[in-house]
Design goal:
Blueprint: E1 3-12, E2 15-25, E3 30-34, H1 41-49, E4 56-61, E5 66-69, H2 83-88, H3 103-115, H4 131-143, E6 149-153, H5 161-174, E7 179-183, H6 187-190, E8 196-200, E9 204-207, H7 214-217
Length: 230
């Protein structure tokens, strides 16, 4: 198992965000995390990354090679940073004492850009990219560290239909090579590609894609969560 939790819970002061979370996530799985705002999706990702410590229960993540892709990168679009330099940000852990990336790091960054289909834009200003191109650049920044566990927070939010298709095609190509947990509100688009759906709303309910009802697929989080066989 890549990730295992037993009766995991987390609270901020007196308010419980997550309770009684039991997970068994296998290596190479592609999983969608869905649920209402405030349900605990981001908190769960922060726990898996080690940014938050569970209040109760146990957590076992069988790798330290974890990468995170945010929904957006907030920065001054006039700041003079190239696409290649953004991707090299994923190699900061390997930066030597003299503060300059070596040729090997640049080669890895170019390989990551090739993987996401942005080789021709390596010298372009990051601020000039479209939403989809920027998101693929952030995925390349994550991939350059060769993670075994890839966490993404709504990677297709605020991008057009073609960019969404490109991102899903990219993630599908990584399937089985990496364990992928993706927060999404667009379950209808994700459900055909993922192995499992985790509903996060204070607790976590694991479902197969076939168990998700039509109402639930468009964001109406109500019981029952599974389809009734006719």
């Amino acid at each position: 198992m890549m990730v295992t939790t037993r009766d995991l819970g987390f609270r901020y002061q007196r308010d419980w965000i997550l309770r009684h979370v039991d997970l068994n996530i296998t290596e190479g799985a592609f999983i969608a995390l869905v649920g209402p705002n405030g349900g605990g999706k981001t908190t769960l990702l922060k726990i898996l990354m080690g940014f938050l410590k569970p209040t109760e229960g146990s957590l076992n993540v069988c790798t330290k090679a974890i990468a995170y892709v945010p929904q957006t990168l907030r920065f001054d679009k006039q700041f003079p940073i190239s696409v290649l330099e953004v991707v090299l940000g994923g190699r900061l852990h390997a930066l030597p004492w003299h503060g300059r990336f070596c040729r090997h790091d640049e080669e890895l960054a170019r390989e990551a850009l090739a993987e996401v289909g942005l080789t021709e834009l390596e010298k372009a200003p990051f601020g000039s990219l479209s939403g989809g191109q920027a998101q693929r650049t952030l995925i390349a920044r994550a991939l350059v560290s060769h993670p075994e566990l890839l966490l993404l927070d709504e990677p297709t939010a605020s991008v057009d239909i073609q960019a969404e298709a490109d991102i899903y095609a990219l993630l599908s190509s990584l399937r089985k090579k990496k364990t992928i947990l993706m927060v999404t509100h667009d379950l209808k688009a994700a459900i055909e590609r993922v192995d499992q759906v985790l509903l996060v709303r204070g607790h976590v309910t694991a479902l197969s894609p076939q168990e998700v009802c039509e109402h639930y697929a468009v964001g109406l989080y109500h019981p029952p969560l599974i389809q009734v066989k006719k």
